[in-house]
C-alpha cells in the first residue's frame, strides 16, 4: 500500500512538473493591430506533419512566439529566439523550431520559437517588410517579459536556419532600420545555420523571390544582401554550413564571415565537406557534421552563456 501511494505521489509530482514546463504561446501583436495585414478569410493557416516527421506550417496570419523554458534550477538567464527555415514559403517548425528549443533548454538556455508571417500578397501589404517586423516585435516582447520568463535582457540571441538564417542575419543588421526600428530588437549574439545571406549571385532564388518578388530592384537586392549590411555593431556570430549544400551555396556563410571579420566583429565558422541542407540536429551518420552541436555548445560556453548570471 505504501509503495502504491509513493508511486502515485511520484507520478502526480512528475505530471505537475510537466505541466509547469508546458510551453507558453503568445501573440506578437494585439488583435486587429497586426501591421501590413489584409483581411482574407480564403487564406487559412496550414500545419502538416510530413512522412519525414517534420512539422511544416504555412499561410501564417497570426504570428506567435512560443516560450520553452528550462527548469529554474538549471536556467542560466541566457535566451535565444529560434527562427525555422522554409524558403520564406513555409516554416520547418518541428526540427528547426521545437527540437532546437529543447536542445537549448537542456543547456539551461530559454528558447522562444518564432512563428512569423510569410511574404504573401494575398494577406499583406509590402510583404517584404513583414517577416522582419515580426522578428523585431518578438525580440521586444522577450525583453519586455524578461522578468516573467527569467531571462537577462543583455543575453538574448537569435538562431536561424536557411531562410530563417536570412531573417536572423537581417535582424542582426537591420534592427535599427524601418518603422519598427529599436535597439530592443537587436540580438546580443547570433547563430546562423546553413543561412541564406545574399540575394546576389549566390542567392537561394526561391527565398529571394518569395520575399521580394521576381522583379526586385538592384537596390532591394543589395538592401537584403546582408553581407553588405554588416558593421561594427553587428552581434558576434556562429555559422555552420556544408560544402555540398545544393540549396544554399556555402558562399553565403563565407561572405558573411568575411564581412564580420572586416568589421572586427567576433565570429566563428564551421564548414563541413558533407551534410547537405536542412539537417538541424538530425546529423547522425552524416560524417563530421555530426560535431556541429558540440562546436556550438563550446562557443556558447566561451560566450559565457552556459553560466548563471
TrEMBL record:
Residues 68-257 form the BD-FAE-like domain. It comes from the Bacteria. One of its GO terms (molecular function) is hydrolase activity. The keyword Hydrolase applies. InterPro entries: AB_hydrolase_fold, BD-FAE-like_dom, GDXG_lipolytic_enzyme. Pfam families: BD-FAE. The keyword Hydrolase applies. Keywords: Hydrolase, Signal. Residues 1-20 form the signal peptide. This is Alpha/beta hydrolase. It comes from Larkinella knui.
Amino acid at each position: 500500500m505504501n509503495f502504491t501511494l509513493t508511486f502515485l505521489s511520484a507520478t502526480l509530482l512528475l505530471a505537475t512538473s510537466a505541466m509547469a514546463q508546458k510551453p507558453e504561446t503568445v501573440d506578437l501583436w494585439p488583435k486587429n493591430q497586426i501591421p501590413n495585414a489584409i483581411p482574407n478569410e480564403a487564406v487559412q493557416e496550414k500545419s502538416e506533419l510530413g512522412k519525414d516527421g517534420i512539422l511544416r506550417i504555412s499561410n501564417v496570419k497570426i504570428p506567435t512566439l512560443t516560450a520553452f523554458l528550462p527548469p529554474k534550477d538549471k536556467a542560466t538567464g541566457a535566451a535565444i529566439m529560434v527562427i525555422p527555415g522554409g524558403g520564406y514559403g513555409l516554416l520547418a517548425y518541428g526540427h528547426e523550431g521545437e527540437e532546437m528549443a529543447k536542445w537549448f533548454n537542456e543547456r539551461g538556455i530559454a528558447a522562444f520559437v518564432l512563428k512569423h508571417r510569410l511574404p504573401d500578397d494575398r494577406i499583406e501589404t509590402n510583404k517584404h517588410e513583414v517577416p522582419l517586423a515580426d522578428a523585431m516585435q518578438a525580440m521586444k516582447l522577450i525583453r519586455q517579459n524578461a522578468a516573467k520568463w527569467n531571462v537577462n535582457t543583455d543575453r538574448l540571441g537569435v538562431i536561424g536556419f536557411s531562410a530563417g538564417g536570412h531573417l536572423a542575419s537581417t535582424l542582426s543588421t537591420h534592427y535599427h532600420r524601418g518603422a519598427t526600428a529599436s535597439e530592443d530588437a537587436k540580438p546580443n549574439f547570433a547563430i546562423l545555420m546553413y543561412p541564406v545571406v545574399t540575394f546576389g549571385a549566390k542567392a537561394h532564388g526561391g527565398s529571394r523571390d518569395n520575399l521580394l518578388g521576381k522583379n526586385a530592384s538592384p537596390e532591394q537586392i543589395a538592401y537584403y544582401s546582408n553581407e553588405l549590411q554588416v558593421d561594427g555593431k553587428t552581434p558576434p556570430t556562429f555559422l555552420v554550413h556544408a560544402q555540398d549544400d545544393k540549396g544554399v551555396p556555402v558562399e553565403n556563410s563565407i561572405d558573411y564571415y568575411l564581412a564580420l571579420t572586416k568589421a572586427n566583429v567576433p565570429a566563428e565558422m564551421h564548414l563541413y565537406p558533407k551534410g547537405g541542407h536542412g539537417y538541424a540536429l538530425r546529423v547522425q551518420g552524416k560524417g563530421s557534421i555530426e560535431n556541429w552541436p558540440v562546436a556550438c555548445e563550446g562557443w556558447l560556453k566561451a560566450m559565457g552563456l552556459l553560466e548563471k548570471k
